[in-house]
Amino acid sequence: MKKTIFTISSIILIVAMLGGCSEKLTPREKLDASMTNTINMATVKQNFDMTMSIEADEESISPEILMFLGMLKNIHITGDFQLDNNEILMGGNLTVDLQGISYNTELYLSKEKYIVKIPMFNKYLLLYDYTEENASDNPLFQDYDKMKELSQNIYSKILNQLDDESIKELKEISIDLPSGSVKATPIEMSFTDAQMKELLKTTFTDLLEDPDFKQYIQNSMEAQNQMLGEGLQEEVTVDNFDESLDMLKESLDTIDEILSFDTVEVTYYLDKDNYIVKSDFNLLVTVIGDEETGMPQFTITLTGTDSYWDINKPIEITMPELTDENSMTLEDMVTNTMGGEMPPEMME
Q1: Cβ(173)–Cβ(187) under 8 Å?
Q2: What is the pTM (predicted TM-score) of this model?
Q3: CA–CA separation, 289 vs 193, rounded Å?
Q4: pLDDT of residue 98
Q5: CATH number of residue 306's parent domain
Q6: Beta strands in the chain (DSSP E)
Q7: C-alpha pair distances (Å), 158 with each of 18, 139, 191, 210, 265
Q8: Number of domains comprising the chain
């Protein structure tokens, strides 16, 4: 089960990297240039619309697992964000719809604060809190520039592993963005089952051997502990860090036994300056069942679209003003919901 979770997480990371992001350039060269532009852009506005569904053979799984999977049959996620890369500042809204039950939240991120509006509490959750003076101590951003460079290198490696048949440039079209209509050139990328598995193996093998990436993961673990607070955090040791990496390496070795990629397609829409202004993605993967462990076979479908506009134009992101009455820490939330008195908002 742990191997499967690690492997699925790896897929999400790869798809996120693929979806994120003149001279007569080849389609491959245009995509590579678009990644450089995306990483180095100063500001951008973005919205996205994504649907995820998990389906399983109802006769092969227990009622408990069936009930859980039923909640994940059609998850609809939409978002609208602004990002300032120079200031490392982000703000926006996220909506998650679980078969008619919607949860709306706000997210704000800076080097000093990470804030999420929790609908059930009607409060802001403060995940970390630094001042301008000590923001450089935030482990999440200590290797920010190195991670940008690493992301670009990985993306280039991914493109170089694909054959020409997997990358196709289509005719220029007009697409509608919130800022208006723009001309864009679609470039399609598709992956076979064998290509995707090889991509996962080579990409994550390289990542796990990269000292900057390993340091970033360790910093992220330390940041998670800080978010949990003194009462909930666990010590981040070299041993448990290496154990997590070893588990991921093992999952890559068994990927042929765990997963089957039925569809992996991404289409980018590039403007005249080779910025990505829109992307569509479609993923269908089968998680192969295992009778010995009781893991049922199920399929994951992930489809969606992202749009980007007002690139490198002035934007204004205002962080919410927090008070003792309208905010809480993660430790406060866990204490209230699992070990302490429920907040008044939950009792109404």
Answers
A1: no
A2: 0.80
A3: 17
A4: 84
A5: 2.50.20.20
A6: 43-56, 75-84, 89-98, 101-109, 113-118, 123-129, 167-169, 173-177, 180-190, 259-270, 276-287, 298-309, 327-329
A7: 9, 28, 11, 16, 14
A8: 1
